[in-house]
Amino acid sequence: MKWPMCCHVERQASRMHDMMERLDVDPAKLARLEGGEAYARARLNCLRCPNARECLSWLEAEPQSGERPVFCQNLALFKACKKEAEPKPAQAPDAEPQDARPAKT
């Protein structure tokens, strides 16, 4: 038997992670911020969110370029923990053309 509060907590936790994914949040960065306190606050914000329906609708909609969930109490925190652009791998320097003449012996 599932209890209503248990279902609510699971649903909100899942929604928070969906939101983090959609906003390209680095979960490790968020977890480390303020020794984990920022993550705990974000989770509590989601559990107490007065905009749950709006949040779900936003997550289910096709993402619009640049559209942000201004209703989200965690938006500023999520922006601060956005994933960094992956650095491009270093390219090997161009090889010098080798002399086509055979080595002298």
Describe this structure in words.
By secondary structure, the chain is mainly alpha-helical. It has one domain. 49% of the residues lie in helices and 0% in strands. Helix 1 crosses helix 3. The longest helix is centred in the first third of the chain and has 19 residues.
How many strands, which pairing sense, and closed or not: the largest β-sheet?
A: none
Q: What is the number of helices?
A: 5
Our Rg estimate from Cα atoms comes to 23 Å
Proportion of strand residues: under 5%
Helix/strand order, N-terminal first: HHHHH
List how many beta strands DSSP finds. Answer: 0
Helix content: 40-55%
Task: Give the number of domains.
Answer: 1
Mean pLDDT: 81
- List unreliable stretches of 5+ residues: none
Q: Helices and strands: which structural class?
A: mainly alpha
Shape: globular
Distance between the termini: 86 Å
Question: How do the helices and strands line up, and which of them pair or pack?
Answer:
Layout: H1 4-22, H2 27-32, H3 37-47, H4 52-60, H5 75-80
Helix pairs in contact: 1-3, 1-4
Considering the chains and any ligands shown, give keywords for the structure.
5 helices, mainly alpha, 105 residues, 49% helix
Précis, in short:
With 105 residues, the chain is mainly α. It is built from five helices and no strands.
